[in-house]
Design a protein that fits this description.
2 domains; 39% helix; Cytochrome Bc1 Complex, Chain D, domain 2; binds heme C
Length: 253
Amino acid sequence: MARQGWDTAAALLALALAGCGDDSGTGNAAGQGGGGGEGGGGTIAPAAYYEGPESAALGAAGNEARCSTCHSDDGAEGYSGNTFMDLAFHDSFKGGEADLLGAVNACVTGWMGGAALTSDDEAFIALRTFMEGISDPGATTSNPIAPEVLADEAAYGAAYDGGDAVAGEAKYATYCARCHGGGLVVGPMAAPDTATLGALSIGRIAQQVRTSGPPPSGMNDATDSTPGPMPFFEPSELPASDLADIVAFLTGG
Ligand code: HEC
Ligand code: HEC
């Protein structure tokens, strides 16, 4: 029940992948599902829901963001979300407020603009299998969640003035260009191009990066040009000096 839409999508994916013949040796997660009623498919590798078109398809129509757009799987830095390496066995997620399903759904429905998954959806089982495969069962301590919230745009402007524009170019390429370099559609909205960002004030850019935009940071409202589906970067993910350099690069010093 509540899975008709998904069954349709799964059938389309099965068609799209017919002929791949890559047996992923599906993990026998919790005695559930397995072959299930999905027409004996089971040929979609778990990683596809992390980084393939199957991942983008979990979001709104037209969404191009995948889990891999915002989360590395090997501890690499440069992403707004935490790495999936050693994440799956944490006691809780989202700073202690969610279980794994809740955390995945916060991203699927929030940033990506899709419909929530259930615990027995093929996509969720695949994501959990993928994440568990790259996680140490002994790593159980949940991550804190600590966005930097300053009073207003002017406060961000003061905090992030004076960066190094030359150093900022490479940092922009690492942290921002995977979305802003090619107008990637996240949920329902495309990321503005680099020149558009450069016309904004220092404070506006820094506030957007730290909090997804001025509050209220509602997502998935294509008519609202202020808050939107751009994820926030915590200082632990993007150090202050690096953000100052990026802002200097964008605004021309
Ligand atoms: C547009 C960016 C974006 C996309 C796409 C995205 N996430 Fe996230 N995700 C975040 C941010 C930002 C956070 C919260 C802070 C953090 O993890 O650093 C987060 C948090 C999480 C967490 C909790 C992490 C923790 O340490 O508690 C999980 C689990 C997660 N995401 C799974 C997924 C999965 C699975 C997908 C793909 C179906 C996905 N995310 C897609 C940005 C994204
Ligand atoms: C996961 C994709 C993604 C990444 C990574 C990303 N952005 Fe964005 N960004 C977006 C999207 C989509 C929008 C448009 C929707 C919105 O405003 O949230 C946006 C909007 C913005 C805006 C607001 C533009 C306006 O007209 O108000 C600024 C400023 C911005 N991004 C700067 C950055 C900077 C700087 C970085 C790197 C530190 C970055 N973004 C990283 C996707 C991304």
